[in-house]
């Protein structure tokens, strides 16, 4: 049967023509790579980020390639801002078929995420607000129109950090990404009867400016040697998996946690 086509099987299952994708953290490294990938597959793009400039930069790049895209500034720590952003996206595009919950805390609050003895309730709460509560609120907000339109795809970006236990860092980040994995299955279970799929991507180490600043070249080399393929991921590797999960080729894939690590 190898290589044999089933009657009527579509060979263009990764095309996203006519669909609208909302990417949170779309101004960041993985978000930007995913935006470009989905746009080239035919989707129109809503780029949501707390930082206006990078989001507008991604939109300018997309428009430069002739794609339809718009930037939306939002602080995902606040429910009212999330709801207003979804409303603005609906007003601009009229539909949301793909939701990529990609944003997560980085920078200063993330650097404050150290050991238990150094943890504060503020750092913990902010981490969970952005990394778990926002994806839940966003899924809730887009669900009614997905149900009305007959389906949709939600892709949550978790992290391979849940496979390891660090003694020095990630005390709030790692549990938040673990909670996001469980939320993924709940969204999948409740969305399933409405043809709404939800999966999570678990990136390993991805070569971004943020990771380079945090670890430096030498430590990144040590890390890449631990992977079976002896290399860390690029943002484009994560974008490719998000694209697959968002597309019709993944129509039978839901509730899954998919590692993209280079082999651990
Ligand atoms: N880079 C890696 O090695 C790696 C590994 C595993 C998982 N991840 C996950 O991949 C995703 C993307 O990471 P990245 O490396 O592209 O990081 P990044 O910092 O480049 O992008 C994250 C984006 O989220 C935005 N953001 C942060 N807080 C926000 C808020 N409150 N409201 C709205 N936007 C907010 C930031 O402005 C940024 O543009 C994250 O969920 C991250 O946890 C990354």
Automatic annotation (TrEMBL):
Top-level taxon in the UniProt lineage: Bacteria
GO MF: oxidoreductase activity
Keyword terms, alphabetized: Oxidoreductase
One Pfam family here: adh_short_C2
EC number(s) on file: 1.1.1.-
Family the entry assigns: Belongs to the short-chain dehydrogenases/reductases (SDR) family.
Protein name in the entry: SDR family NAD(P)-dependent oxidoreductase
The species this protein was found in: Novosphingobium bradum
């Amino acid at each position: 049967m190898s290589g044999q086509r089933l009657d009527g099987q579509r060979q263009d299952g990764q095309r996203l023509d006519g669909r609208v994708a909302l990417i949170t953290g779309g101004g960041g490294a993985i978000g930007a790579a995913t935006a470009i990938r989905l746009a080239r597959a035919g989707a129109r793009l809503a780029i949501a980020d707390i930082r206006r400039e990078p989001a507008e930069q991604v939109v300018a790049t997309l428009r430069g390639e002739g794609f339809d895209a718009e930037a939306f500034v939002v602080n995902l720590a606040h429910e009212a801002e999330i709801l207003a952003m979804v409303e603005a996206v609906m007003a601009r595009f009229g539909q949301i078929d793909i939701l990529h919950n990609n944003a997560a805390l980085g920078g200063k609050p993330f650097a404050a995420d150290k050991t238990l003895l150094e943890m504060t309730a503020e750092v913990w709460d902010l981490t969970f607000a952005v990394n778990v509560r926002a994806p839940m609120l966003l899924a809730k907000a887009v669900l009614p129109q997905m149900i009305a339109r007959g389906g949709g795809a939600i892709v949550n970006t978790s992290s391979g950090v849940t496979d390891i236990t660090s003694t020095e860092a990630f005390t709030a980040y790692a549990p938040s990404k673990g909670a996001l994995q469980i939320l993924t299955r709940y969204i999948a279970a409740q969305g399933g009867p409405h043809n709404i799929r939800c999966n999570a991507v678990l990136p390993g180490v991805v070569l971004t400016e943020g990771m380079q600043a945090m670890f430096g070249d030498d430590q990144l080399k040590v890390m890449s040697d631990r992977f079976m393929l002896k290399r860390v991921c690029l943002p484009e590797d994560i974008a490719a998996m998000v694209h697959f999960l968002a597309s019709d080729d993944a129509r039978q894939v839901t509730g899954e946690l998919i590692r993209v690590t280079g082999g651990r």
